[in-house]
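Below is a concrete protein record.
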Amino acid sequence: MNLPNQMPDPPVNMAMSPFYPYILALSIGIFIAALAYGWRDMQRTGRWLPLLVLAGAGIASFQECIYDVAVLVWWAEVDTTPMYRLFNRSVPLWMVFAYPWFIGGMGYWAYSRFREGMSRGQLWKLYFFGWFANLLLEVPALQIGHIYTYYGEQPFKLLGFPVWMAMTNTLMPIFVGAILHLLDDVLRGPRALFALILVPAGTASAEIAAGWPMWLALNSGQGVWVTQLATVVTLGLSLSFAYLIALKLCVAVPSERSSGIAPAHA
């Protein structure tokens, strides 16, 4: 019995865009800004945690190839030298700078706000800002040429970017910030090095927790109607996890902080 191939074929002959160096330079510039923010906060707090979070996000960039297989992302292989090639995915150097500023920088910022008593409204602002930041990260690269592409039955594309990806990616820094906040009392001294494994763990947890319906749908061979339905499920999961984190770790309204009511788990 010959079963059909459920996994779409990637565009294996895609050549790297000549504009890739500009996208890489932009990402390096944002990374340097995140690094400066982390260095300044390290001097202010006397803790290495902000820089360790950025480094942990850099380590998490080696998970990229796993997600790319599941969500049908293909990086150009012709006329380029990848940072690494695993699972038949040639991941470029761009990712080792993008992960630290998107996941590490925003994740550490979320952690800092949790410590100070982030309101639920502020968390939702961060959640939807994550959508914008994800668009800022990906849309330019998708528009200027063949750096990478989303292939297969991708639903609801905006300028080449399937918006469901923002539903999972925006959870990454929120999960990272929440984990760091919950474990903050033990991440002291040498134990702060555990951030190097906690950040990749938070990244993977967020991506899988909300994205697994899309992974299944995209590789089911059932067509775009199934991926559209899975998008609704993924959106529901993403919103649900953000809602639960807001209930657990955030104060109800900003005025609670100023009125002397202690923020949750501060």
Observations:
- DSSP finds ten helices and six strands in the chain.
- The CA atoms of residues 75 and 148 lie 4 Å apart.
- The longest strand covers residues 73-75.
- The radius of gyration is 19 Å.
